[in-house]
Amino acid sequence: MGRFRASLGQPGLSTVAEVKRRSPSAGDLRPDADPTALAASYERAGAAAVSILVDARFGGTWDDLRAARRTTAIPLLAKGFFSTEEHLRTARESGADAVLLLLRDLDDTEVHRLMQAADMLGLDTLVEAHDAEELGRAVALNAPVIGINARDLATFRIDRNQQLELVARAPRDRVVVAESGIESRAQGAHAELAGAAAILVGSALMRAPDPAKKLAELTSRPLVKVCGLTSEEDVAVAAEAGADLAGFVLADESPRRASGVLEVPETMLSVAVVVGEALDEHDADLVQLYPREPGKVRGRDGVLLREEEEVARVIDLPWEEDDPKHLDRARAAAGRIMLAGGLGPENVREAIEAVRPWAVDASSRLELSPGVKDHARVRAYVKAAR
Description:
Layout: H1 3-8, E1 14-19, E2 22-23, E3 27-28, H2 35-44, E4 49-53, H3 62-71, E5 76-79, H4 85-93, E6 98-102, H5 108-121, E7 124-129, H6 132-140, E8 145-149, H7 160-169, E9 175-179, H8 185-194, E10 198-201, H9 203-207, H10 211-219, E11 223-226, H11 232-241, E12 245-249, E13 269-275, E14 286-290, E15 302-306, E16 309-315, H12 326-332, E17 337-340, H13 348-355, E18 359-362, E19 367-369, E20 372-373, H14 375-385
Helix pairs in contact: 2-3, 4-5, 11-14
């Protein structure tokens, strides 16, 4: 296993941060981008690898790869339109640890030959697919690292829903990288929940005033959820404050019951909160499911579902009760944990430091009355959680 594959396969969501001066679809992004400085700053910000565009159509050259190699120790991916073994040798000699192979431009015989040549050179390959047919080809070719690109390279249109569907269909024994169109923490998290081991981010970083700061923001945890939302105004405030998840309670017994799942901006994921069984029809990205408990609105702990698959556990307080060992119990839990139960601006930071959860969830302590949010407290809670 090469360095690139091993680095992306670490626990949690990894990032491949890109150096890209321009894009055929968007034009100039950062014409003066310095691969030397960017690669070093990406490494400090926690990138698992750095992608370097070496093709002139993206404003790149092989010298960019060589410059990045001089300043960073993490794996480098050479991105271009590679079709010959000579391309791969140049990549290796210039400091690459991996190369991109585009299924759109290569037939299976060519991909197989180039994968073998890369292996002989000590290079990993990122075999990129754009649709179901190409994903099937990548799987059949036994590609260990598969990229799922949300961008149609013919029309440049982004289709995140198709990307997520393909990510979810890819075999779990492959390292899957979600590429293109990821601009927010929530979008990266959605790819993670669908099964991506890593995200590759280029344009969003190149457009940011501080690319390394943007990179750190995209992968920072915990995600922050504001639950019990019932109005468009409260959703807008939660989004403006920087929340990642918007929760809509659909249980009839709850005083915070929403009329339905409201529309949320692309920077957020919507969560339908249900009790007893998951709803067959809803417009939410995720479902937060709690068991029923006689005499109470719901049971204690729940699960977070994506397409009926459990992707995280919700560790909560007993309904309307205290538990002094709540944080200890959450800290001992394995896997992705969404921490809930009595959180607000005053205590969320302490809880995060104690548990290190994947996400935090607050509702009642952010309210003026059940289902009506106190905007100042929502903003303070999100700020404290960051």
